[in-house]
Amino acid sequence: METTNAMKVAKTSRSSIESLENSKEEFMAMIEKMDAEISDLSQAVRMEGNATSTGTIERVNKLKIHRLRLNEMLTAMQAADERTWVAMRQSAQLAYEEADTARQ
After folding, report:
1. Domain for residue 26, yes or no?
2. Is residue 14 part of a domain?
3. What is the pTM of this model?
């Protein structure tokens, strides 16, 4: 059976998303990575001008959408106690995996 990127992400990031504190750190790190990538791609779009590929713009927009979702989830995690975290952990895991997949 072939291992997909999403399956690899799930295997490698699951332990780091288990606790609330580790999750906050992982989300902040992912947001920083996405910010850097968005900035780099946006710079490339500005430099290319009219010759910009639609694919690059689509990628920037996709990253921005996932970054927004991660940021909203992080804000909720900042206010969460352990009981709330248990309830939202699965959706946080999914948001993290989808964002990581979008970066690849």
Report:
1. yes
2. no
3. 0.78
